[in-house]
Amino acid sequence: MTELGELTDRMRRFAQARDWEQFHTPKNLAMALAGEAGELLAEFQWLTPEESSRVMEDPEEAARIRSEVADVTLYLVRLADVLGIDLVQAAHAKLDQSDKRYPAETYRGSAKKAPPLP
Amino acid sequence: MTELGELTDRMRRFAQARDWEQFHTPKNLAMALAGEAGELLAEFQWLTPEESSRVMEDPEEAARIRSEVADVTLYLVRLADVLGIDLVQAAHAKLDQSDKRYPAETYRGSAKKAPPLP
Amino acid sequence: MTELGELTDRMRRFAQARDWEQFHTPKNLAMALAGEAGELLAEFQWLTPEESSRVMEDPEEAARIRSEVADVTLYLVRLADVLGIDLVQAAHAKLDQSDKRYPAETYRGSAKKAPPLP
Amino acid sequence: MTELGELTDRMRRFAQARDWEQFHTPKNLAMALAGEAGELLAEFQWLTPEESSRVMEDPEEAARIRSEVADVTLYLVRLADVLGIDLVQAAHAKLDQSDKRYPAETYRGSAKKAPPLP
Lengths: 118, 118, 118, 118
What we know:
4 copies of one chain form a homotetramer.
Chain A: H1 3-17, H2 26-44, H3 49-53, H4 59-83, H5 87-101, H6 104-107
Helix pairs in contact in A: 1-4, 2-4
């Protein structure tokens, strides 16, 4: 079993042991995921880009950020489990599209958004 | 190499090939992650909890949701790479804490938030 | 001066008195706004739709929600000030568009998203 | 009636005319608000702080941002209506607290978060 598969299993058992599956609808999990992404955002909101790049040098800040990143990961893994989505497969499929949508030579050094693929 | 390690590498090469590393500060990636989490949210906002549980039965809706989940995954993987965080390790460490914070017998069937661990 | 104008002025003076204008770039304020919207989300994530409708009956929950709604309001007002946007005017302009995009007879009782106006 | 009161009324009539009140639970509106805050975020995610400060100079970018800010405003106003919260009053109450939590002399030029008031 992959490491992501094991994490998914552990989260599922964690929810089952607490009878929390009733709360883990896709709607609620999407909210929890966005809420945690918002908390992660708060760690960076007043930092300059440069400060944000050095954020892991401070042990307390690093611990807070690792904890928020973990929360996002856990809800993402749980949401994917409930929806029956293979995260890694879905991510590669999206990158296949992005390879076509953003040819390296056209978008080098540019943050412009490409028009959607037809 | 794990499947998550391979995805991380592919995203890194994707960014390098386009000279996009300059945009991929932790601050900017946290914003992109939260933005994608917001788009995922929008797929569920008007659905009842029950409708949200059946969302993958409709092929078009399923494709949109798979695509948004993939976007969240890609930015999360990229952010973790830039910050030097091992996502799976961080998630397990958080679950170790949650095991203590939310004893199964006390929190069975309850969505109450536990006080933070001392 | 309108009540929103007065609130805008008070927030501006609050930032000036603390020399916080340097932090209040549109980018940072958009992050703060989204972060607070995420905290508001967290108050509702495990509630059923019905429970969410009765949320102001509990004084403690009501106080937390009022506080989060206030945070969103303050950052929205501050962001609009920094961007030079008249919030009420912009909102009415958007509603003018929505009146055309969502004719009442076509969208009655439907949560479907309309195609964008040409 | 204040300009915010008029906007609240217009949004309420807009929802009533489409029989959309069934969708406008606090839970769903908090999701819609966070989703729109995420779209606003996306407009700023790859910009430097300096670029974000000049964002209204480009007419197309300015129109997109005005539109996203309007969406956030509309859902915030609608959510406050459904919850029975006076936005301006709640914001002033929060600023009263912040005046105490962040004394100007202590927090001048500092983006540090204050401990919560006792």
